[in-house]
Amino acid sequence: MSILKKYNRHLLKRGYNGPLSFHQPYRLGHIITFDRRSGFEIVGHISDAHFRLKDFEPVERSGAAEADIDFGTETGVNIDIKLQGEAQIPDSRLALEDAGLLIQFEKKASYLLKTGGTTVHYLENVAQLGQLVHQLYRNKQWNPHWYIITKLIEAERATLLISNSSKARIELKAQGVVGGLSEDDLVNAGVDLAVVSKRDMSTNIIGKEGPYYPLFKANGIRVRRLFPKPVGSPFEQLNKIDPMKAFTLADLEEEQPSFGLGFEPYDFMEELMEDEDLS
């Protein structure tokens, strides 16, 4: 779990989260929560009567992404490409007549995520949804730890590699390739890549046929202070307190409230921290 949490923290720098389990497909409108032991969990969908959102009519939009996803090389990923007839790569099992790729990782939880045939799905009327969730929350009918998937990336094909150590590597042989070979062939349906060797890999999904949902964004209840943060002593400790833990629902009803509700993208950064990161 710690590897996949670190992977998600890398994704946050790209503005997304990714499922910690690859077996359950996500949908727009899924309501999720986060468990420190098992990761993201689906608790239902906004269409379920239990969540009291029957008056909400989602406006869903979809369109081809401007570019396919190519994330992760900045985390310390090195890719060597060998073509047929070229000299062997040092410490490689690819023979002279083979074509393939040697991918090596410099850090624990370094990753490579590539997609092909990428589609973006999103809810257009998020503001309307947020107003309804606000009211449910005020009525004590909404768990503040529920988050709604409002944007979802779908891929026809995907490759996801995550390292388990700074010595991790994976070697792939391209079956039947005669011409050129490139990194883009990691998601090329016309190229069959077979694992020749691997070491210290946490995840190796290679050319997975979709639909595959590697990335999402989720919105949830956020409480914000409505006044500027005071600076200096004695306010330093006050400013460190999460507003979500420093208010009551009654505070929202004051004539001049100090707190306000938002319905914003949530990054799960606190949930993704490990105990050693907090010490």
Structure description:
The structure is a single chain. The radius of gyration is 23 Å and the shape is elongated. It has helices at residues 2-12, 126-138, 236-240, 243-246, 249-252, 269-272, 275-278; strands spanning 30-35, 39-45, 60-64, 70-71, 77-82, 100-105, 111-123, 147-163, 169-175, 192-199, 201-225, 259-265. Helices cover 16% and strands 39% of the residues. The longest helix has 13 residues, at 126-138. With 279 residues, it is α+β, with helices and mostly antiparallel strands. It is built from 7 helices and 12 strands.
Overview in brief:
The chain is of the alpha+beta class. Helices cover 16% and strands 39% of the residues. Strands 1, 2, 3, 4, 7, 8, 11 and 12 form an eight-stranded antiparallel sheet that branches.
Write the layout of secondary structure elements.
Layout lengths: L1 H11 L17 E6 L3 E7 L14 E5 L5 E2 L5 E6 L17 E6 L5 E13 L2 H13 L8 E17 L5 E7 L16 E8 L1 E25 L10 H5 L2 H4 L2 H4 L6 E7 L3 H4 L2 H4 L1
Antiparallel strand pairs: 1-2, 1-8, 3-7, 4-7, 5-6, 6-9, 7-8, 8-11, 9-10, 11-12
